[in-house]
């Protein structure tokens, strides 16, 4: 059975996505979640606390996915870790697609919360991804790439279906959360890595 806290979280994600953070009131969240306003105060203090909880929880879980891949660098090749990053991160985003959409929209704003997120969570993300590509470049698994540019490009490609879901649905008539669509898009990203990042003399495609 869904808990009171989870109902508040689900309602907040839905309303923040539909109306924006500023356009959503605590009372609207409480009404949608079918709880008393006092419940929101109890679990999250206020609307700002609720927003911070949503963003922090999403990023902590996301970093946990990346950290597990980073830990495999001692036994896996950089190429294997790069492919695993695409597959596992795409899967995580798909499972948390509505929250991913909201979080990445918020990341485009210049707020104190976003600055704090950049200096903590996203610096860790940068470290994990850079480590994979640095190992690949050092071991000549990868081409002589610009690591910052490749990491930025890879991140942009991974989050695009979740950040731009409305664009895909309305313009391209693609449902970005359908399994077939995600699998096809994921294949395109891995093919990009094969051609633009991985050394041409390295071992062929790897299925993980």
Q: Keywords for this structure?
A:
mainly alpha; Tetracycline Repressor, domain 2; single chain; elongated; Arc Repressor Mutant, subunit A; 208 residues
Polypeptide structure, described:
The structure is a single chain. By secondary structure, this protein is an all-alpha fold. 73% of the residues lie in helices and 0% in strands. The protein has 11 helices and no strands. The longest helix is centred in the first third of the chain and has 24 residues, at 47-70. The two termini are 35 Å apart.
The low-confidence parts are 202-208
The radius of gyration is 19 Å
User: How many structural domains can be distinguished in the coordinates?
Assistant: 2
CATH class of the largest domain: Mainly Alpha
Main beta sheet: strand number and arrangement? none
Name of the CATH homologous superfamily of the largest domain: Tetracycline Repressor, domain 2
What structural category arises from helix and sheet content? mainly alpha
Task: Provide the helix percentage.
Answer: over 70%
**Helical segment count:** 11
N-end to C-end Cα span: 35 Å
Order of helices and strands: HHHHHHHHHHH
Question: Can you summarize this structure?
Answer:
The protein is mainly α and 208 residues long.
How would you summarize the topology of this molecule?
Elements: H1 4-19, H2 26-33, H3 37-44, H4 47-70, H5 78-95, H6 97-106, H7 112-119, H8 121-138, H9 147-163, H10 165-171, H11 179-196
């Amino acid at each position: 059975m869904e808990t009171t806290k989870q109902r508040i979280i689900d309602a907040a994600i839905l309303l923040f996505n539909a109306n924006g953070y500023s356009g959503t009131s605590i009372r609207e969240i409480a009404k949608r979640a079918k709880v008393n306003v006092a419940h929101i105060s109890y679990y999250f203090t206020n609307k700002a606390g609720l927003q911070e909880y949503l963003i922090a929880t999403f990023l902590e879980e996301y970093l946990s996915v990346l950290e597990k891949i980073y830990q495999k660098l001692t036994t896996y090749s950089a190429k294997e870790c790069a492919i695993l990053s695409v597959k596992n991160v795409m899967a995580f985003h798909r499972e948390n697609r509505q929250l991913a959409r909201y979080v990445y929209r918020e990341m485009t704003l210049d707020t104190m919360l976003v600055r704090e997120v950049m200096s903590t969570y996203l610096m860790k993300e940068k470290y994990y991804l850079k480590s994979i590509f640095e190992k690949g470049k050092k071991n000549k698994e990868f081409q002589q790439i610009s690591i910052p540019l490749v990491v930025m490009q890879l991140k942009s490609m991974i989050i695009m279906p979740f950040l731009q879901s409305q664009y895909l649905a309305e313009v391209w008539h693609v449902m970005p959360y359908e399994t077939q669509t995600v699998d096809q898009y994921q294949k395109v990203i891995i093919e990009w890595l094969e051609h633009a990042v991985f050394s041409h003399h390295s071992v062929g495609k790897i299925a993980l």
